[in-house]
Amino acid sequence: MKFIEGGITAPAGFKAAGLHCGVKTNNSDKKDLALIVSDCPCAAAGTFTTNKVKAAPVYLSMKNVENGEAQAIVCNSGNANACAPKGEENAYKMCVKTAEVLGLKPEQVLVGSTGVIGHTINIEAIVKGIPEAANKLSADGGLDAAHAIMTTDLVEKIAAVEFELGGKTVKLGGIAKGSGMIHPNMGTMLCFLTTDAAVDKAVLKKILKECVAVTFNRVSVDGDTSTNDTCLILANGMAGNKTVSGEGADYDALKEAVKAVTQTLAIKIAADGEGATKLMTCTVSGAADEAKALALAMSINKSPLVKTAMFGSDANWGRVLCAMGYSGEDFDPEKVDVGFKSAAGEIEVCRNGRGLDFDEDKALKVLSEKEVVIDVKMFEGEGTATCWGCDLTYDYVKINGDYRT
Amino acid sequence: MKFIEGGITAPAGFKAAGLHCGVKTNNSDKKDLALIVSDCPCAAAGTFTTNKVKAAPVYLSMKNVENGEAQAIVCNSGNANACAPKGEENAYKMCVKTAEVLGLKPEQVLVGSTGVIGHTINIEAIVKGIPEAANKLSADGGLDAAHAIMTTDLVEKIAAVEFELGGKTVKLGGIAKGSGMIHPNMGTMLCFLTTDAAVDKAVLKKILKECVAVTFNRVSVDGDTSTNDTCLILANGMAGNKTVSGEGADYDALKEAVKAVTQTLAIKIAADGEGATKLMTCTVSGAADEAKALALAMSINKSPLVKTAMFGSDANWGRVLCAMGYSGEDFDPEKVDVGFKSAAGEIEVCRNGRGLDFDEDKALKVLSEKEVVIDVKMFEGEGTATCWGCDLTYDYVKINGDYRT
C-alpha cells in the first residue's frame, strides 16, 4: 500500500466539484457546495453522530444509506441545517435536486451539511448551485470538493492510497473537515471516502465501522460532539477486483487501506483543530486492556489543563496524572510513568507516580515542537491505545467567541 | 437567617491566621499558610475529591476526620503536595507541627494543600511558618486565612450567616478557593467551614454531604476534577444550642445555613473561574426528574463552545442544544425552549427545538452583562436543576499555558 495524490477522485470512476453558491455570506468567494459522484452505482456505508440532537441531513443520509447503496454525495458548508426551521424539507430539496440533475433516484443521493446551528439554510442558493456543480464535475475536482466542505478549517484534509486486491490495483481516497465541536461518539465531522474496490455492502459497512472506531473516534478537539458528524464511503467496483465478500486477505488489505486514509484524515483534523498550534498525540501502554488504555488516553486528550499546558510548552505532567485520575478508571497512580516525545527528543518526567528532577530546558525544547507525544506507561498488562488532539489556545477562544458573525 | 461579616471567625470560639511562609516563591509577599483553630474540640466532617489520584494531605485529612472529631485546620497554597516526592511524610509533618504548637494530638488536625502538582513541597518553610501563624491567631484572622489559601483566585471567597437554633443565635462561616481544575465529583476545591452550633457528628456529616451535592458539585470551570478537592467543617458547640442530633426543625435550620454559605462560596468560585469575565448560571426545568435536569444542565455548563460563546456575548443557542444532545440523556429535541436572562432583560431564542427570529441587538445586550442565565425549559415533568460556571476566555488559556513558572 502506498499513499498517492488525488483524494476522492483518485479512484476510477469518481468525479467531484466544489464551488461557491451563496450559503457562506461573510466570505463571499469561499466554496460552500461540494458534489461527489460515481459513474456507476456503489456499495455505500456510513457512520453518524451519536448526539441526540441530529441535523436534518444526518437523518436523511442515515435513511438513504441503510440499504447499502448510493451513487452521489452532496454537501454544503456554512450552515449545519440542524435545529433549523424547515430542516427536513430543505435537506430533502438538496437530495431531490441533485438526483434530478444527475439522473438518479433521490434515495441514491447522500446529503451532508456543516456550519452554524439553528439558522434556516439558504436552500435557494443551494438548489441554484447544484446544476452548476454538476456541470463542473471532473476527475480533478477532489481538491475543490475538499475546500467546499471547510468551515473554520485552515487547511483542506485529503488522503488517498493505492493497494493490491486479488491482483488488481485498487485506490481509495477521502476528504474530511474538522476544526471545532469535535469529540468522538460516532464520530467524525464530515468525511467522504471513495474507492474503486468491488466490495460487498455488508463488508464495507463493517470495515468502515471498525476503522472509524480507531481513527475518528480517537480524536478530540474540544469535547463537543457535533450534531452533524457523518462519515460516508462509496465503493464503485471499477477496479475490477474479485468482490470482497467476507474476511480474509482481501478484507484485511481493504481494511488496512481504509484505516490508513481515515487515520491520516483524523490526524489532520486534530492538527487543524480550531486555534491549534500543535498536534498532541497521547499514547497509553501497559494498561490492563485496550478499553482502559483508551479511556485513560482520551481523558488526558480532552483535559483543558493538559491542552493549555501543551500550548505553553509547559511540562506540567501533574495534569496528565490528574486527568487519568478522573477518567473513571481504576488504577494505581504509583505505577505510572509519564514522558514527552517529539522531533527534538524525549524526556521522562514522572516515574512510579512521582515527579523526577528533570531538565526543564530540555523539556521546553521537546514540547516546543509542532507535534508532541504524551507517552504514558503503566505496568498492568498489554492494553495500548493512541489518540489525537491539539492544544487549547487563545485562537480557539477567539474563533468561538463570535462564531456566528 | 441573615448574611453577616466575619467569615470563618464569625462563629464563637474560632481563631484564624494567614501569612507568607515561603511556599510561593514567585510572589514573595503573597500569603501561603492558613491556620484555623477552635478554642475547644469540634464535631468535624469532610468531603473529598473522587479523583483516583489524591494528594497526600487529602488521604491524611480523610483519616483524621473519620472519627468525626477535630480542632484545627492547617493549609498551604503554592504546592498541592500531590504526586510529589515525600508527599505523605511532609503532609504528616505539617500535621504534627501544628498539633505540637497548639497542644493538640496530631489526629485533631486536618491538613490541606493547593497549588502545583508533582513538586516536592517546601516543608521547612511550612514548619517554620506554623508557630508564627499560631502566634498570629485572632478572632479577626478569617480574611488573612482566606487570602492564604488562594492560588490563581483573583478575589477571596468568604461567607457567613447568623441564624436561630432552638432559641440560640448560631453563626456559620466559610472560606473557599477555586479558580482552575474545577469540576464536580466530590467536589469543591478547598472550602473550610466553621460553626458554633452544637451538632452531632453523624448529623454534621450528613448535612455537609447533602449541601455539597447541590452547591460545589454543581460548579464547573473547566471539567478538570482536582487531586486536592476538600471541604471541611468544624462545629464547636459554643453557641450553646441543644445539640442537633437528628432530623427536625433544627436540622433543617442548620442545613439551610450550610447550604446558604456553601452555595454562596460555590457561586463565588464559578464567577472567579480562571480567566472568567462572567458568571454563567444554567437552569434546566421541566425535565422528567432532577437527575436528568442536572445531567443536561452540567453538559451545557461545561461545553467549551457554550463557554466561548458566552465570552463573546454571542447568542449561539445551537451549542446549548448540541451540548444537551451529547449529555447521554434521552429527550425530544423538539420539546426544548432556550432563553437567556440577565439584569438587562430576557430573550427567548429557541422554541420547540427550532430557532426563533430573535432581536440580535437585544440578545447582545442581555449577554453582555456580568451575570448571565441560560434558561432551558423542557416539557417532560417537574425535574429542575441549576448549576454554575463561567465563560472560557483568552485569560484561561494564558493562565494555564504557563502555570508552573
Descriptors:
homodimer, alpha+beta, L-amino peptidase D-ALA esterase/amidase, Ubiquitin-like (UB roll), 2 domains, 9-stranded mixed β-sheet, 11 helices
What does this structure look like?
Two copies of one chain form a homodimer. Chain A is an alpha+beta fold. The radius of gyration of chain A is 22 Å and the shape is globular. In chain A, strands 1, 2, 3, 4, 5, 6, 7, 8 and 10 form a nine-stranded mixed sheet that branches. In chain A, strands 9-16-11-15-12-13-14 form a seven-stranded mixed sheet. Chain A has helices spanning 56-65, 87-102, 123-136, 142-148, 201-214, 249-271, 290-301, 304-311, 318-325, 360-367, 394-401, and strands spanning 2-3, 14-19, 33-48, 69-79, 109-116, 157-165, 168-177, 190-195, 219-220, 230-235, 279-287, 336-342, 345-351, 354-355, 371-378, 383-390. Chain A has two domains: 2-271, L-amino peptidase D-ALA esterase/amidase; 279-401, ArgJ beta chain, C-terminal domain (Ubiquitin-like (UB roll), Roll), CATH 3.10.20. In chain A, a hairpin with a 2-residue loop joins strand 13 and strand 14 (354-355). At the A-B interface, helix 8, helix 9, strand 14 and helix 11 of A face helix 8, helix 9, strand 14 and helix 11 of B.
Topology record:
The structure is a homodimer of 405-residue chains.
Chain A: E1 2-3, E2 14-19, E3 33-48, H1 56-65, E4 69-79, H2 87-102, E5 109-116, H3 123-136, H4 142-148, E6 157-165, E7 168-177, E8 190-195, H5 201-214, E9 219-220, E10 230-235, H6 249-271, E11 279-287, H7 290-301, H8 304-311, H9 318-325, E12 336-342, E13 345-351, E14 354-355, H10 360-367, E15 371-378, E16 383-390, H11 394-401
Parallel strand pairs in A: 4-5, 8-10, 9-16, 11-15
Antiparallel strand pairs in A: 1-6, 2-3, 3-4, 3-10, 6-7, 7-8, 11-16, 12-13, 12-15, 13-14
